[in-house]
Design brief:
By secondary structure, the protein is an alpha+beta fold. Helices cover 25% and strands 31% of the residues. It has 2 domains: 91 residues, no CATH class; 46 residues. It contains 4 helices and 7 strands. The radius of gyration is 22 Å and the shape is flat.
Length: 163
């Protein structure tokens, strides 16, 4: 399957334009749950378009133009009135990239960082700035280090520059 995460949406068209592949899609009309109170809702407030960058396809950049619904929260005792639906594996709140592309860019950022990473990402048909790659590096959690079980006297002496 070329786009495994597009199973959950309805693809209206695939259009090559401007040296990129544009996938025009919309979400299915299914009952969604409020992300905060988990109350199911199917009352539509409005719709809006999201433009998501995706990994390259056939040597061309890919963009997904997704029409997303905003739904009313049915829980009257909760302060949130409207919420936007999220598509698992495809959208993340406030993100303009798919999680798959974000993982690739994080790997590029950790390996190369800054300007060289931006040049490599451009070769992968994913245009991104050096500052974006630095933000991705800063957002990657630090690796968990094991706590030493035994400390010797020499470990303290080298820290104080006493040999």
């Amino acid at each position: 399957m070329l786009f495994p995460y597009l199973d959950t949406v309805l693809v209206d068209a695939v259009v090559p334009a401007d040296g990129a592949v544009h996938v025009v899609a919309r979400t299915r009309n299914v009952v969604m749950s409020c992300p905060d109170c988990a109350t199911p809702s199917e009352r539509i407030h409005s719709t809006y378009k999201r433009h998501l960058a995706d990994g390259p396809v056939g040597g061309q950049a890919a963009r997904i133009d997704l029409s997303v619904r905003r739904l009313y929260c049915e829980n009257a005792g909760y302060p949130r009135r409207v919420f936007a639906e999220q598509v698992d594996g495809l959208t993340v709140r406030y993100s303009r990239r798919t999680p798959a592309l974000l993982r690739v860019l994080e790997a590029v950022a950790v390996a190369l960082a800054s300007r060289s990473g931006a040049r490599f990402a451009k070769a992968l048909n994913s245009v991104v700035s050096r500052m974006t790659l630095l933000r991705l590096v800063m957002a990657v959690p630090a690796p968990v280090r094991a706590v030493p079980k035994v400390l010797g006297v020499d470990d303290f002496a080298t820290r104080r520059r006493q040999h």
